[in-house]
Write a structure and sequence with these properties.
By secondary structure, the chain is mostly helical. It is built from twelve helices and no strands.
């Protein structure tokens, strides 16, 4: 019985080792004096110095960050409106519409890239940041839509009905009741969209312009000439920034405690809400 109880822990341990050993190797070889990752020649910070002197690398990083931010914000806005509209009214063919809304995450990226390339060429749009934002927003919308839709499915509609009975319009009820309830799902969907957009290579190759370079494309193009530990240094800094942001988020959540929910005391809530409306 004890051995059976150890199996889940052993399984989790193996998965964690397989996930983090490559990351640790990337961090380790960012301090390697040799250009080859297979040979250790000693500790050095030279690659970090070269990284900070490489303006093109940081330009690509800035482009990727701006692209991911714009795409996640656009996907958050469109995905939230779509989820709220589908949850409020079920039009004819709602199942087919939901299937089409989630189709971009099921279609292979190379197919999406070719479709976007043909579509933008048909419209004679100049390839660059604009086409990148449109393409990334399109495949990021389903992530926000699915999360917000799942959150709305667990929402008690009586809260919105109570707000409408107290005189609130549709927008006021959405802003005061629905939006705070779906906000955690919205943020989760936008963060996932940010990560997917920041990491995308295949679709970006098809829709980017000659003057717009993103970080994944730049690193991918270096494979032909050889990836130096300078790239490892950049990956190490990005990993460190991700860890710091994760720790800050966890500390903030612990400080604020459980996320606030809609008050259960209906009498006090109605009085307070009615006072705000009047």
């Amino acid at each position: 019985m004890k051995r059976l109880r150890l199996l889940p822990n052993l399984y989790i341990g193996v998965i964690l080792v397989m996930m983090y050993i490559p990351i640790l190797l990337v961090i380790l070889y960012s301090f390697n004096a040799s250009r080859l990752s297979s040979v250790w020649e000693g500790f050095t910070l030279t690659w970090y110095q070269e990284l900070f002197r490489d303006r093109s690398m940081f330009q690509a990083l800035r482009n990727s960050a701006v692209l991911a931010l714009l795409s996640s914000l656009s996907a958050g806005f469109i995905g939230t409106l779509a989820a709220a509209g589908m949850a409020r009214s079920r039009p004819p063919g709602a199942g087919a519409m939901e299937y089409l809304a989630t189709l971009p995450i099921m279609v292979p990226e190379i197919i999406l890239g070719m479709v976007f390339l043909a579509f933008f060429s048909l419209l004679a749009l100049p390839f660059g940041m604009f086409t990148l934002v449109i393409a990334h927003t399109a495949f990021c919308i389903p992530y926000v839509y699915l999360m917000v839709k799942a959150r709305l499915g667990s929402m008690d509609k009586s809260y919105v009905e109570a707000a409408r009975d107290l005189g609130a319009g549709e927008m006021r009820a959405f802003y005061d009741i629905t939006l705070p309830f779906i906000f955690p799902a919205l943020i989760s969907g936008m963060l996932l969209s940010f990560a997917m957009s920041f990491d995308d290579v295949i679709i970006s190759v098809f829709v980017t312009g000659i003057h717009t370079n993103t970080l994944p494309i730049k690193i991918y193009s270096q494979i032909k000439t050889g990836v130096t530990p300078k790239t490892n240094a950049l990956c190490t800094l990005l990993f460190a920034a991700t860890v710091v942001l994760g720790l800050c988020s966890a500390a903030l959540a612990r400080h604020r405690g459980v996320s606030p929910e809609i008050p259960r005391d209906s009498v006090n809530s109605e009085k307070k809400y009615k006072g705000e409306l009047t």
